[in-house]
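Sequence and structure are kept together here, with a separate record for every protein. An example record follows, reproduced without changes.
>
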Amino acid sequence: MTTDGQPFGWDTTTVADAYRDRDMRLAEQLVFPAVLRRLAGRAGPGRLALDIGCGTGAVAARLVNAGEWEVQGLDPSAGMLGIARADRPHPRVSYRLFDGRSLDWLADGSVDAAVCCLVYCTDPDDGRLAALTAEIRRVLRPGAPYLLADLNPAATGVAFSTLRHGEPGAVYRDGDTVPTLLRLRDGTMMTSTTYYRSLDRYRRFLADAGFPSPTVELPTLPSGSPDASAVPAELRTAPYMILATHA
């Protein structure tokens, strides 16, 4: 599927269907292992993990298969959740529609881990993201981890094998709209929109919600990776960043 003209928004049925076919190789190599590694040893019977902005359920499925988590996958897109329920059902995963801001069905200090992958970049509303970050802090147990994975703001304009966020040479400021190309599994590209925020802005979201300063991981493909010769950018530049903090 190739799009031209206006980019898709993230909450449409068309995007949900296209996202189902997204080429996820880079996220599978760089984001998912890092997230699971940081949660290693924390799972157990009855322990609850949130996959916030779960989309089609890729992270929720990995969480529940990596340990004895009870997982709630949350997303504001009914289309994405429909695909998650169809493609990645599991007795310990529940998928729930939410407004992107409130976790009001969860009690204070009732959650053992929270993961939010590639969500902040899709929301233009700083107020909604600030409210969501504060809610995540509220529901986490003391010491429980929060892992926020997103596009690396230092990598705008770089052409990776499965994505490019931003035009080469363009300079973006906090809140700017960024045209984003995503590769589908059939090799065609879809265009959508993300929103630029600097690393300092992410840190402010966390600090304002009461989280400690995060560690920042910028994973790249190792030398000798099968994909490295085709796309050398992924050896030297991190497409994604992972911010790790805790309640």
